[in-house]
Amino acid sequence: MEIDRLARLAVTEERIKQAQAKVQENTEQQCKIAEEKLKQKQENQKEKRDAILKALQERLQASNEKIREGKVALQKSIETQSKATEEKLRAKLQTMEEKRLSILLSIKEKLHAKSVQNEQARKDHKNNIQIKKEILGEKIQNDMEEKEENRQAYLKQKVDRSVHRHAEEIQQAKQQLRATEATG
Question: In the prediction, which pLDDT does 43 show?
Answer without folding.
Answer: 92
